[in-house]
Amino acid sequence: MDSKPDLDIFRDTPVRYLGYANEIGESFRSMISQVAVRATYGVSFGYVFMDVIDKGKKTFVKEKKLSESGVEKESPVIKTAKIATDCLVWQSFASVIIPGFTINRICKLSSFILQKNGAALRTNKILSTIIGLGSIPLIIHPIDHACHKVMDKTIRPMIGLETHIK
């Protein structure tokens, strides 16, 4: 029998990239409408909420089975609330808020530098968009790691969850 862990569609597949839709929107901010940028945040937060629902449902089912088997555990509802809260906070910061802000500032700074160096408006928009897009893969893992470290020192101990980084 194979004992590999269950595939987490929201963390271990390309579905994870939906959480970064807002970074694409921020990269293209100078070239698309404000409505389109906001729509990318809608996609990202939709991803976050779907992951929270998924983690909550899986936790509740697992904890309910443990509770019914007589294993002394905390209430399935309490454990589910803790896991869902952890997921919501981590995903909101690691997938949407911090990366979106970071890409926005990278694009703004690159646009400012290009403008100061006499780049034409069209060239400025294209290059700052490329710089923003190129920055996305460079910021993902450091932000994820930093969010885990901060949460391991703050919210996780406060709500009684194990730390993520050992």
Task: Give a description of the structure.
This protein has 166 residues and is mainly alpha-helical. The chain has one domain (14-159). The relative contact order is 0.12. The longest helix has 41 residues, at 76-116. The protein has helices at residues 21-27, 34-68, 76-116, 121-153, 155-159. The model has no long low-confidence stretch (mean pLDDT 92). Helix content is 73%, strand content 0%. It holds the Pfam family MTP18. InterPro entries: Mitochondrial_18_kDa_protein (IPR019560). Belongs to the MTFP1 family.
Question: What characteristics describe this protein?
Answer:
166 residues, mainly alpha, 0% strand, elongated, Mitochondrial_18_kDa_protein, Mitochondrial fission process protein 1
What is the H/E string?
A: HHHHH
Low-pLDDT residue intervals, each spanning 5 or more residues: none
Shape: elongated
Radius of gyration: 20 Å
State the secondary-structure class: mainly alpha
Number of spatially distinct domains: 1
Mean pLDDT: 92
Intertermini distance: 28 Å
Number of strands: 0
Tally of separate helices: 5
The biggest beta sheet, please? none
Percent helix? over 70%
**What portion of the residues fall into strands of 2 or more residues?**
under 5%
Write the topology of this structure.
Layout: H1 21-27, H2 34-68, H3 76-116, H4 121-153, H5 155-159
Family: Belongs to the MTFP1 family.
Organism: Brachionus plicatilis (Marine rotifer)
GO biological process, one term: mitochondrial fission
